[in-house]
Specification:
Blueprint: H1 2-12, H2 18-30, H3 37-46, H4 55-68, H5 84-96, H6 102-109, H7 113-123, H8 141-159, E1 167-176, E2 206-213, E3 218-224, H9 230-242, H10 247-252, E4 254-256, H11 261-264, H12 266-276, E5 280-281, H13 295-310, H14 316-328, H15 332-351
Parallel strand pairs: 1-4, 4-5
Antiparallel strand pairs: 1-2, 2-3
Helix pairs in contact: 2-4, 6-7, 8-15, 9-12, 13-14
Amino acid sequence: MFSLLLTTYAQCSMVLTVEQRVFLVEHVFRNNGRYTTEVQELFSETFPGEDIPHRNGVRNLIAKFRETGSVLDAARSGRPSVDEETVEDVKERITNSPRKSVRRLALQANIPKSTAHDILKKQLFLYPYKVTVLHQLKESDSEARVHFCRWFQEFVSKKGEDIMDLTFFTDEAWFHLSGFVNSQNCRVWSAENPYEFKEKPLHDQKVGVWCAISRRRIIGPIFFAETINSERYCNQIIRPFLSQLSCQELRSGWFQQDNATCHTARTTMQCLQNSFGDRIISRGLWPARSPDLTPADFFLWGALKEKVYAGNPHSLQELQTAITANVEEITPQTLMMVFSNMQKRLKACVEVGGGHFQHRL
C-alpha cells in the first residue's frame, strides 16, 4: 500500500514536456474531455518508455488550459531583480574595503543581507577567503632563505636524493597537558545554555619533546622537563640521539638545527662536530625564522598535537605515551611525502625571493 501511494504521488508530480501536454489536451478534448484508457494507450505508443500521467495531473492540466488557453506554466512570482545601480554600489564599496563584513555592507548599501550576499557571489563572483597567519619575516631574512634553499637543492643534486635518508632535521616543542581550546571555534549546541567550561590550571603541566626526522625514519621522541640550555641539550638530547644512529648515519649523516642559543653555543657545537664534523646545518647556513622550511615544524608538531590532544590525556604519563605511540605510527610512506613537500617548498621559496610562499603550494 505504501509503495502504491509513492507510485501514485510520483505520477501526479511528474514533469511533462510541452509536446506531451499538447498531446494530452488534444486527445482529451477529442474524447469529450475524458481521460480514457484509449488516450493512455495512445500516450504510451507516442512516448514509449515514459510513465503514463496520473488522472489528477491531467485534470489540472486541462483546468489550466481552460483558464489560460495555454499549456505552459505561469511565470512564478519572486523577489524583484536587483538593479544595476545597486550592484555597482556594492561593487564600489567592497572594492574600497575588501575586509568589510556582509552585514556592514548590507547596512551601508541599504539592502537585505541575503541580497548583498547574492550580489557578491552570483553577480560579482567574489568569494570570502580567510586570512592566514604566518611567522614574521624581516627584510634581511629573504637573502638567507634563498641562499639555503639553493644550497640544499644543489646538495641533493650532487649527492643524490638518498642523502635525505641520512639528513636529520631536528626541533623541540612543548606539549601542555591541558591542550588548547579555541573558544571561538568550540561550540555546544543546546536548547539552553549548559555553561560548559574547561578548567585550566594556574601552573600548567607540560612536557618538552625533541625529535629528529629524516626521509627514512624519526628518532625520538626524547622528552625533557626543564628549559633547555647548552648542557642539557648535549646530555639529555644529543647524546641519546647519537646512541640511536646506525654506523652509516654516523659516518655519512647530516644534522640540522635552528639557531637557538642552546643549539649554537660553543660546547654544543663541539659536541656535534665530534660526531658530524662539518656535516652540520646550523647558524651561518640555516636561515632564521624559517619554520616553513623544516619538516619538524611544517609537518610533525601539527600532526602530533592534533592526534595526541584528540585522546584527551589526563596525566603527563598518558601524554608521553600518546606522543610516543603517534610518532611510531608515522609510516615511511608519509615521510617520503613530507620530504617531497619540502622540496616543493624550497623551490617555491626561491621563486618568491625568500618571502612567504604558501600560496604557491
